[in-house]
Amino acid sequence: MASVLVVEDNPEHQAVIAEVVRRLGHTATLAGDGREGLASAVAARPDLVVADVDMPHLDGIRMCRALREHPATATVPVVLITAYLPPGDTSLASAEADAVVPKPFSVRELSDTLRTCLESPPPRHDPAFTEALLRSLDAGVVACDLDGRLVVINQAVRDFFGDESLGVPARDWAETFGLRRHDGTPLPPDEVALYRALGGEELRHDGVIAHDRQNRRRWFAINARPVRDAGGNILGAVAAVHDVTAEHHQHQYERCKTEVLKALVHAPDADRAGTEVLRAISGELGWPYLRLWLVDPVTDRLRPAATHLAEGAPPIQLPQVLERGEGLAGTCWAGGEPIWVPDLRAPDLPVVVEAEHYRAAMAVPVRSADNVIGVLSFFTVEHQEPDPALTVLLSGIAGHIGGYLERRRAEELSHQLAASIGEYIALVGHELRTPLTSIGTYTDLIAEEDDKTTVGEVRELLGVIERNNARLRSLVERLLDLSALEAGHAQLTVGDVDLAAVITEALPDAPIRTDLPARLVIPGDRARLRQVAENLIGNAVKYSPDGSVVHVTLTSDDDAAVLTVSDSGIGIPSGERDRLFARLYRATNARHSGIPGAGLGLALSRAIVELHRGTITLSGNDGGGTVATVRLPRRSGTSGPARPGHRDETLGGNH
């Protein structure tokens, strides 16, 4: 009988996994989050750990890494369960889990996986198999003897550093191949991971930068340790070299989006915005020369609006005016599509660019609606292959600059700039897979019951299925409603609405302190405005502690009615306020609070408010909690039939 540690913050899924473990004949120990699970595993080493990926305090990936780093749990098999990340995600691979089970899963699938991890003996391989395995590995593997001479170097390392790398001693790799730390500083010879492992150190995720044969930078994470005999004597050292360039770029692009967002939000005017955006892009991506060109509406030519030259970088003598189709920026303007020039020294370039000292260049159009109003151009001293993710990032930034220049609406840009279709799809998958997992697994449990089992004996299991089915149905209905509003397919029924009466009708049976006028009439759709009031007041009550009072006030001036809902609840975590109004996003503290929610209330409210030509904002309460503020126009004729609103492309949303 084996001991299995189950680490899962969803009580329903935790119960299912524990039941599967017991049906396999083993004992299950339960933990509600990653931090608790890690402590339990270190205190009493289990035979197997089954952990969810998305957990509070310490997620499953980081917990798995911590288990691998601790001597007492380094060899414990780990099964990760995820509804948020696909099984092939690089972060899952870096956790070194023994198996990954995607949600939704069936009882049989989970049983087979756990049985394999608990009962299958480790395979034995002959030397020929080991040699073939080393050749086929994507990760690099190098090993040296006690004198630092390389005795093993697999094909992945040779492909990058060349066949001659086998003759380079471990200590000489830094100088021979120009290795650098991840911060860009030179790597001293004594800090080479393999050399340090010879001294008895064990290293995990040691960061190194190296250049490939095309002089492109690659980021590596190295795990290294000494090789010891049965008596503990060091015989040599071995290192695994993982190419983490894609992961590095992903984080780099996220930081770039954040810095551009800050620049746009804090810029006092359009001129300053362009300068600060270029500085932010240069600082995060490392490109020394950037220029923002804008179309002069009088002359219909491109003129530079902002230029950034990094300190110590050579200048470029670019024209001050470009015709359509002239040079890199003019060609991008004419075609309306991004242009990459990976190597300015290569023959048959798509466009002639005179830029001495620079190796690669790129340009992306700046748009306002369907019109190209400018171009962002970039120059770097290194070879730069076209990168689809980077193209999407820069095209998005260029689009937001165009929107900023046309609308000067930094709040709307803060939502648009944080857009990530991949993350939105992941959130949809998470919200659908979680109830589907409960429905599927509890159905499996009922199906496996004896034929003599009565309905009463499985009523609790049926209740879980019914509850999750209702959750799915509500989620789909609200998503369809939101899509109809955003696409302009839903129509507002506009008339004179007493907003004070609507708010009064929306008040729940809970402690609410109101300050409402006797009557306040605005043009709008009564049912939709009540929906907004119910969402905001309901959120305030739901996320406030028992006994606290929610404050609802309604004021007005000549132009607008102002509804304010304030609470002293759990509030919004720092750094997540930019992501509050997009569908399906829930703040991290709310997602792990056990309070039900789909992350659609604020997205629906924002769509409705914008269709009324109003605004909705969230801010922190001085005493803790959240303040929601809605402004709606009072004048007749300022609201009307539903139309496509300003689409929310951020991944922020309800808590």
UniProtKB/TrEMBL annotation:
<dbReference type="InterPro" id="IPR000014">
    <property type="entry name" value="PAS"/>
</dbReference>
<dbReference type="InterPro" id="IPR013656">
    <property type="entry name" value="PAS_4"/>
</dbReference>
<keyword id="KW-0808">Transferase</keyword>
<dbReference type="Pfam" id="PF00072">
    <property type="entry name" value="Response_reg"/>
</dbReference>
<dbReference type="InterPro" id="IPR036097">
    <property type="entry name" value="HisK_dim/P_sf"/>
</dbReference>
<feature type="region of interest" description="Disordered">
    <location>
        <begin position="620"/>
        <end position="655"/>
    </location>
</feature>
<dbReference type="InterPro" id="IPR004358">
    <property type="entry name" value="Sig_transdc_His_kin-like_C"/>
</dbReference>
<dbReference type="InterPro" id="IPR003661">
    <property type="entry name" value="HisK_dim/P_dom"/>
</dbReference>
<feature type="modified residue" description="4-aspartylphosphate">
    <location>
        <position position="52"/>
    </location>
</feature>
<keyword id="KW-0547">Nucleotide-binding</keyword>
<feature type="domain" description="PAS">
    <location>
        <begin position="126"/>
        <end position="162"/>
    </location>
</feature>
<feature type="domain" description="Histidine kinase">
    <location>
        <begin position="427"/>
        <end position="636"/>
    </location>
</feature>
<dbReference type="InterPro" id="IPR005467">
    <property type="entry name" value="His_kinase_dom"/>
</dbReference>
<keyword id="KW-0902">Two-component regulatory system</keyword>
<dbReference type="InterPro" id="IPR011006">
    <property type="entry name" value="CheY-like_superfamily"/>
</dbReference>
<dbReference type="InterPro" id="IPR036890">
    <property type="entry name" value="HATPase_C_sf"/>
</dbReference>
<dbReference type="InterPro" id="IPR003018">
    <property type="entry name" value="GAF"/>
</dbReference>
<dbReference type="InterPro" id="IPR003594">
    <property type="entry name" value="HATPase_dom"/>
</dbReference>
<dbReference type="GO" id="GO:0005524">
    <property type="term" value="F:ATP binding"/>
</dbReference>
<dbReference type="Pfam" id="PF00512">
    <property type="entry name" value="HisKA"/>
</dbReference>
<protein>
    <recommendedName>
        <fullName>histidine kinase</fullName>
        <ecNumber>2.7.13.3</ecNumber>
    </recommendedName>
</protein>
<keyword id="KW-0597">Phosphoprotein</keyword>
<dbReference type="Pfam" id="PF08448">
    <property type="entry name" value="PAS_4"/>
</dbReference>
<dbReference type="InterPro" id="IPR029016">
    <property type="entry name" value="GAF-like_dom_sf"/>
</dbReference>
<dbReference type="Pfam" id="PF13185">
    <property type="entry name" value="GAF_2"/>
</dbReference>
<dbReference type="InterPro" id="IPR035965">
    <property type="entry name" value="PAS-like_dom_sf"/>
</dbReference>
<dbReference type="InterPro" id="IPR001789">
    <property type="entry name" value="Sig_transdc_resp-reg_receiver"/>
</dbReference>
<feature type="compositionally biased region" description="Basic and acidic residues">
    <location>
        <begin position="645"/>
        <end position="655"/>
    </location>
</feature>
<feature type="domain" description="Response regulatory">
    <location>
        <begin position="3"/>
        <end position="118"/>
    </location>
</feature>
<keyword id="KW-0418">Kinase</keyword>
<dbReference type="Pfam" id="PF02518">
    <property type="entry name" value="HATPase_c"/>
</dbReference>
<keyword id="KW-0067">ATP-binding</keyword>
